[in-house]
């Protein structure tokens, strides 16, 4: 019943699927691709009120994904999903569109990614989010440097979960009651940068990690709600990990 309507067969999702199939069929490319479909539903009824209609909540999601090597040093990864929900009938999202690779730097390495990517600071507890931009990891003998810079304002409002002010809450809820087109509405316009320094086995086989995350609110004044202005934020993180001194078979991580 979930898939019998025409909601699932929207042109953007079909186009994404065709793109993935064409990509995997292209000569000279070695690629993986797939399609997954899942769904869930629930019914709530008030047994004390026989005249009340039961409340139903149905969710169905289809995801098409693929990846292929480009030359000997680069890789392209694509994932697009369509989500149908009774409270928000249309949600088509590019979950991932990433071009990346790895290069050798003398005794170290450089890993880079560009496009729609998943970013986080080292613990994943302070910031973990998808954005559009660049990320890189550079490994040297004494330190590994990780950095990213992404823009979160191209994500649809349910996918852009950064809610810090009243204005963010308004951006998040826009279009829920009155469903918006498949490509919108968009979430809050924010630029996020991150920097992390990891010093492996700095002392007594202990690894020290220092990180920072910086967010800038780029919204214009006409998009701000009364009582909810712009908010810029900075976060600093410190972590330590390694084997315990009294038993090297046991490891810990604090942050």
Question: Can you tell me about this structure?
Answer:
- This protein is mainly beta.
- The chain is 9% helix and 55% strand.
- The chain has two helices and eleven strands.
- It has helices at residues 11-25, 166-173, and strands spanning 31-44, 55-70, 74-85, 88-105, 108-120, 128-139, 144-151, 190-203, 206-217, 233-244, 247-254.
- It has an eleven-stranded antiparallel sheet with strand order 1-2-3-4-5-6-7-8-9-10-11, covered by helices on one side.
- β6 and β7 form a beta hairpin.
- The longest helix is centred in the N-terminal third of the chain and has 15 residues, at 11-25.
- It starts with 10 loop residues before the first helix and ends with a strand.
- Residues 1-14, 24-28 and 175-182 have low confidence and may be disordered.
Radius of gyration: 22 Å
Please list the strands of the largest sheet in the order they lie side by side.
1-2-3-4-5-6-7-8-9-10-11
The helix-strand sequence is HEEEEEEEHEEEE
Q: Which structural class is indicated by helix and strand composition? A: mainly beta
Strand content bin = over 45%
Q: Give the helix proportion (percent range).
A: under 10%
Contiguous helical run count: 2
Mean pLDDT: 77
Poorly predicted runs: 1-14, 24-28, 175-182
What best-fitting shape do the alpha-carbon axes yield? globular
